[in-house]
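User: Fold this, then the next.

Assistant: Folding the first:
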Amino acid sequence: MKFIYHIHDQCCRHASNTLEDVVNLALQEKYYELFFTEHIPLDDNLYLVRPTRNEIKNLRKRIDQINRKYQGKLKIHFGFETEYSKWNKVYFDHFAKNSLGDYFIFGNHYIGDLWKSNPRLVMEEARTISDLDEYYENAVLAMKSGLFSLYAHPDIWLQAYRKWDDKAKWLTKQIIQLSIKYKVPLGFNANGLHQIRDNYNYPSKLFWNEVAKSKAIVIIEADAHDIFTLRKNWLEKAKNEAMKYGLVKNLVDKIDIKYFR
C-alpha cells in the first residue's frame, strides 16, 4: 500500500490526528502518496462539525510546505470529501472551481438542506424508504456531475436502515451500477472496522457481497480520523476483510483522480 486515500485533519473537529502526525507515520510506513480529503466548509454551519474556510487555507499552506520539505520522498494531495444534492448543487459546483482543493470525493453524510437547521445524518437517521430515495437521488446527481474521484463509504446508509429488504437490495444495485457507469470507484472503509461488527454497520458484508458479483472497482479508503486507521497493519486488516467479502477481483491499489486543475 503506497497510495493512501481519504484522510482528515484535526481541524474537521471530529478527528484527533494532525497533518504532522500523518506525515510522520507516512514516512515511517514508507507510503508514497497521501490523498487528504477534508470535509468541505459550509458558511455558518459549524454545527455540522466541519472546518472553517480559514482553517482550510491554513491546512493547505501547511501541506504545500511539507511537500516542499519532503520532495522526492512523499507527496500530499489535497481535496475535499463533500455532499452533493438538489438543495445545494450550485454551491458545490461553484466551490469545485473556486476552492483550495484539487479534487472531490463523494461522502453523502446528510439528507435534507444543509443550509437549514435540520439536515439528518444518513448513518443515524436514514430509516425510511423515502430517506433512501433521497440518498439515491443525491448519488445520481453526484455521479452525473463528473466531479468525483471516489464514492466514500457507499454502504453507510445501512447502519441506520438496518434491513436487508427489497429496498436495500435495490439501492445497493443502483449504487453499483452508478459506480460502473460513471467510473467512480467505491471505497471500502477501514475506519468503519472499529465499530461493533454486524451485517449493517459499514463496511457491511451484505452490501459488499453484492459488489463482489459485479465489475465495480473498489479501493481501501482509510477515512483517517485517528492515526491508528492509517497504520499499515490496520489497512491490511481492512484489505483482508474485503477479500473475505469476495472482493478479490474488484480491489485495486491506485485510482485515477479527477483533478480540477
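Now the next one, as you asked:
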Amino acid sequence: MSEHTMRVDLLTREYPPNIYGGAGVHVDELSRVLRSLIDVRVHAFDGPREPGTVPEGVTGYSDLPELADANAAIRTLGVDLAMTIGTEGTDLVHSHTWYANMAGHFSKLIHGVPHVISAHSLEPLRPWKAEQLGGGYRVSSWAEKTAYEAADGIVAVSNGMRDDILRSYPAIDPARVEVIHNGIDLAGWVAPEKDDPERLATLAKWGIDESRPMVVFVGRITRQKGLPYYLRAAEQLPKDVQLVLCAGAPDTPQIMKEVSDLVKGLASERDGVIWIEEMLPRKELVAIESAATTFVTPSVYEPLGIVNLEAMAVGIPVVGTATGGIPDVIVHGETGYLVPIEQLQDGTGTPVDREKFESDLAGALNAMVSDPDRAREMGVASRRRVEEHFSWDAIGERTVEFYAKVLGR
C-alpha cells in the first residue's frame, strides 16, 4: 500500500441530500474525515447528484428502469449490480446497511478486493419487517447474511452490536469483528446562548416554556424506538413536566394509532405535551434540546444511538434503556441513567415485564426532573464525554487502521 494512496469505496443507501436516518449521517461524516487521510469514493442510491452539491468522487445510481414494477428488495439488488461496476479499481469496499451490502459482496467477488461492512442494524433483530415487507424481508435477510458471512472485516458501532452480530451469525469469525463507535459532528451540536434570538424564537414557535422541567424524545415511530413504553411511563411524571416529542415517519398505521392514542390520553390529563411530527432542521432541534432537563431513549433495540450523542453534545443528560449500544454511550450516574430491561430473545426486544420496565423508566426520569442541579452537572459531563470519545477525527483514524489491518490479512 505504500506505493499509492489507499482507495476505499463507500457503498451506501443514503447520502446527501437524501438522508433519512443514522446510517446516512454516519456515511456523510465518515467520508468527510476519511478524505483527508485516503482516496475515498462514495456510491449511493437515489440517482445522480446535482453538480457542485456534493464533493468529487460521489456517484449516485438510479433504479434500473427494467425493475420499475419489481419488489423494492429486487430494485435494491439492481442498484447494487450497477454499483459493482463503479467500484472497479478500488483497494477495498466498505458497505453500509443491507441495501448496499450486496454491492460490497459482488465487488469482492468480481474485483477480488476485501469487503468491510459497518453494522448499523441487523435484519434478524427486526422481525416486524416481515409483516411489512413479506418476500422483500426474506430477500434482505438473505442479502445481509450472505454478505456478512463472507466479509473480510465487520465494524460494530458498539459492544452490544458486536454481541448481536456474533449471536445472529454464528458462522462469522469473531476476530473479524471490530468495535469502532459512531461519531458526531461536535461543531454542529452546541447549545446556543440562552438569550440567542433564534433559539428563543424556536421555543416560542413550539410553545415550550423554559421555566418548566422538560423531557425530550427524538426518533422515528418504530417498534424498536420504544415510544409507547415511554408514553405510558410519562403518566407517572409530575404534572408540571413538559413532554416534547420530535417523532414522525411511522413504520405502520398500527404503531401510529397506538402512539396517537397514548399522546391523546396524556394530553387529556396534563398540559405541556408537545408533539412535533415534522423533521426539524438541526438548529431548531438543538434549540429545543438546549431547553430540556433530560433526553429520553426508551429503545428496545439500538445499535448505538446517535441521538444520544447529539443530546449529550448539546449538554443534556440522557435516560436510556440498558440495551444494545446505549451502555457504551451513557455512563450511569455520571452522564445520565441506564434503565434495566429484561428482554425476550426472539428478536423483537420486547420487555419480559412491561410494567416493571415502564415503572423503572419513570423512576429514572423522576430522579432527573426532581434534581435540576444534578441534571445540569450530568449535562456538562455528557458534553465532555462526547468530546473525548466520539469525535469524528478519532473515529476516522481508527477506521483507516482497520482498513490497513484487513488489507494486511
